[in-house]
Amino acid sequence: MYPADCKYTKDHEWIKVTGATARVGITDYAQKQLGDVVYLDVPQVGRTLRVGESFGTVESVKAVSELYSPVAGEVTAVNTALTEKPESVNSDPHGSWMIEIRLSAAADLDALLNAVDYSALVT
Length: 123
Hints:
The chain is an alpha+beta fold.
């Protein structure tokens, strides 16, 4: 259920690394807990994030939840298609990235969960 090529946070974000950059989104578990996603607030390109820093919010019909950066780095892209159609998170949570980050330190990834450990966390 959770892609093996991603890493996960205990706050229910996923991160998929490609070279020096990584895409970040929320997990299937998170979108199920939220319900129908209606709004997404993400940072501007160029913002520098620290590990665990809030980078935006996701709003559903049930609640508003903070989004936390799993790694430190600079935001290099924002998924504008997702900000225009946030409900895509519900139908394809692991394909619906929110931001792309240029990693400051690959070692940040060592503190994250693999798919097996994350699955155990949420079951």
